[in-house]
## 1
Amino acid sequence: MFEMLRVEAKKAIEIIEKHEFARIYTHYDADGISSGAIVALALMRHGKSVHVSFLSGLNEGVEEDELVIFADMGSGYPDILSSLESDIIVVDHHFPAGRIEPKRNFAHINPHLAGIDGSFELSASGTAYVLAEEIGNNRDLSSTALVGIIGDKQKITGGNLEVIRRGVDSGCIEERDGIRLISGKIRDVLRLSLEPYLDFYSKEDELDDFLDRFGIDGDREVDELTRDEERKLANAIAIRILKMNSYPGVFEDISGRKFYLRDELIKNAVMLSEVINATGRKASQSVGFGICMRDEGYLDRGYELWRKFTEEVHQEIEKRRDQVTEGECVRYLIMENGTSTGPIASVFSRYLFSDKPFVALNIKRDGRVKVSARCNRGLADKIDLSEVMRRSAEKVGGRGGGHVVAAGANINAESVDEFLREVDRLCCIHLSSS
């Protein structure tokens, strides 16, 4: 499975051995933070010094050094990478946007270049794990890789499945049958969960009726349920999801198997991923990074950020669901200084408005606009959101890209209307040609 990736990983190691220090840039979401931690920890165990920075994209600027490593980013910025006077290693899973012409030593570890679909079958954290495994005995980092696999809503198949198998074989990952949920009392889990999103936030009476109807004890801890209790809960959740306008494949995405992690500070893999993602979205990436590095001093702050961020997303969903605008082939939501666009777009596209791609735009005070586009896997057979975001952003002088089902862009506020018209036009073209 990883033979071609290992070839490039060995090339990366040859570059690493020339240096005592590495400057690491990584994305600020769960996949990026866990990828950065895997690379950093593997290098530190190998006797190297590192400095880690978190970015939303390379357009924010990069400080050059003798060795620069990009994790969960880089493949979409061939122009920037080609301009750097550094040895460069890219550990990414985004589809390469063009030819990189490095000025010095270069290694590009990317599943798309090895016949693996990075959109579904191998996360950036899984790609980072392949490099870590080549560097030394880092099998325990397979559990850290799960943070990104879950955080990017990837399939447990292909390269991701291989990473998990290695963790299970080494005892770092425990796999059980069941439904993947965050930790906590059932009542709190159903109210706060974003994946699956069950629309119980601020609906206490409706939640009580739900628990009573299915005979579920809301004070039971999810992680302590018996197999029969979990089946009852899973059946109830499935019925709830079916009554919503959800993408039919949602339940398959979250059921079947769940994972517990021997060496991580948070044992429930879903909970760990949610906490790490929240720290990134709240601009406290160092907290999530510290948790991935297994420093207990960051744990309480991580939980605090997770709860605050999760409640903010739920509040934003309640506030904005009636503000969604219908295009011809997309739906979109324009916010000003709103909460993070990605989680909101994910919930809307998977649970509330699943029949069309969804685009969330957040206009910031400085005039920049953060865009997140999402669609479900059924629509991904017809629409490539990565291409749509790239082409639409370029038309208005911005930058865009990502994955087939999850992509984004950065544009200016004055370009919003033209950008949305182009997004809608391109999505209609994709749909009509499929």
## 2
Amino acid sequence: MNVFCLGGAGRIIRESALDLVQFGDVSRITIADYNENAAQEVAAWLDDPRVDWTRVDVHDHEATVAAMQDHDLVLDGTTISLNAKSTACIAAAGCHGLNLNGFGEEYQFDSIFRDKGKTFVPGFGMTPGVTNMLAKHACDQMESVDSVRVSHGAFRPVAFSGAITETTVYEYDPDLPGRVVYENGEFVQVKPFARPRDIALPEPYGTHPQYIIPHSETVTLADYLQDKGVKLIEVRGTWPPKNMLLIRALHEWGFMRNDLIEVNGKQVGIMDMIGSYLQQAPEGQETELYGYALHVEVEGVRDGQTTRHTLTHTHPASDGSAPGWEKLRAYTRCVGIPMSVGAQLIARGKVLDKGCVIPERAFAPGDVFAELAQREIFIHEQVEEMG
């Protein structure tokens, strides 16, 4: 298998590439990025004869398609705003593919992937991705499902990369139509910081208030569970407490609208300015605790009994006691490794559907959990009858 890592110099997808080096049955891994120097640095860091690099710009459709065409699969690590352009390239190149975001732009290319006999899975990192597998695992054991509550804590700096800064601004856009919950058969739009709920994450992360976020699990789980009678699907998330205080203040003061202001005779978006500052300031590059924590709670009827099934995950500590998981890498590996696992399952013929395939229909949770366990990412579950 030849794999093309688009945006391969990014902090997350380089971890996908490393996992392919360590675990994948691959012949070639191409680190493809707009930043030529960064692509070279990542290729050198991977230090494997199967790894090469190239410069690409997804705005140049024809050149990007040409660069992809002698590869079997593309891992797309580009930003949310580029997903339509990047997926168009992957479809035209006739490759299998996955991306991290899954916000919906990808599905317009379904017929192209289908016609070419290829599979593209939108949104397969930690969340969306592993969270979809946790929910599917619980729901598949139930005769009917009443509610699914997906939650996560992403413990990382607020602006360690341009893509992360963009994600922050996107998710807390006050008028974002995609910030929805699924309730009684309808998608209901909600505002930022809606429906607070205290979520007890695995240690060392603790209990934090979490709020509705615009993630694709809401939509894909509603599709997957349409025959289970599901009444409620909510997806929540949180970042480190200091990050949340900052975002809350920016929201309440109107900064998240990204209004244009005049600075030295030039029109700039206020959040664009703040994002640029945070990417250059130490406060935007550091946090006290690093890593990822998932919490998925499904309630429904199992074996005739009303049941709550709760699933969480743990990974090696970020304190330096586990080599390779120090600080930020405890976060980036949690996101990048599942993407590599998905690619390897596609390569092994584990995904039979063609076209743009939601994670719930693409992968078997057991396959994913077994692969994650080999990387010391473990799934924990608790099942309790509710009376």
